Amino acid sequence: MFQNPRGLGVAVIVSVWVVVAADFALAAWEWAYLASAEDPGPLVAVLVDGVNAVSLVARPVAVVLVVAWLWQARSAAGHAPHRYAPKWVVWGWLPVVGLWVPRRVVADVWAVSAPAPDRARRAVVTWWWVLWLLYDLGTDAHFVLTLVVVDDLDALRAMVRSGAVFPVIAAGAAGCLTVVVRRISAWQAASTGATVSTASTVERVA
């Protein structure tokens, strides 16, 4: 019934934590820069540019890997009842529907993949989605407000300080997603192993 998405799951986990690490590094840099009256040295500038480059690459990579893993996990869940067709693994991230469809897709994959005692214990899926929305929508709003107050140094410092919460939210979302990916991947891998073992036994008996 299941294929094994564990390898792709590891790539998802690594990619999202790279994004989180870059967010923390950039937030620390912005805080330190506004608190200092001196211009950064050339080495610091190079390091910051490097972190920015990593962040710009890691974000789309993480998105692609999450969608790819979810597609594989959804496909591995077979033809069991799902609220959305497989195409919604991709199209569900579009504006408006992206506010609820991906969470439901993941919740359905969890329910199908989990052993009976764990099927209803999917609060971590909801926590991941709530934190992700807070991060995604919050950082967009924060960026717009930062542009509005860019000429007011005091207001800009206040915005930078408030923005320090977003890496923390990102870490929470990444932690929840790590749990979701690891559990679903483990359940599907176990199911694959059991299916292969049963098939081998049948072949030997035959």
Attribute tags:
206 residues; mainly alpha; 78% helix; elongated
Please provide a brief summary of the model.
With 206 residues, the protein is mainly alpha-helical.
Explain the layout of strands and helices.
Elements: H1 6-35, H2 42-76, H3 88-91, H4 101-113, H5 123-148, H6 153-163, H7 165-205
Number of strands: 0
* Anisotropy-based shape: elongated
Structural class: mainly alpha
Compute the separation of the termini in Å.
22 Å
Beta fraction: under 5%
Folded structure, characterized:
With 206 residues, the protein is an all-alpha fold. The protein has seven helices and no strands. α1 runs antiparallel to α2, α1 (6-35) packs antiparallel against α6 (153-163) and α5 packs antiparallel against α7 (165-205). The radius of gyration is 21 Å and the shape is elongated. It starts with 5 loop residues before the first helix and ends with a helix. Mean pLDDT is 85; it is low at 195-206.
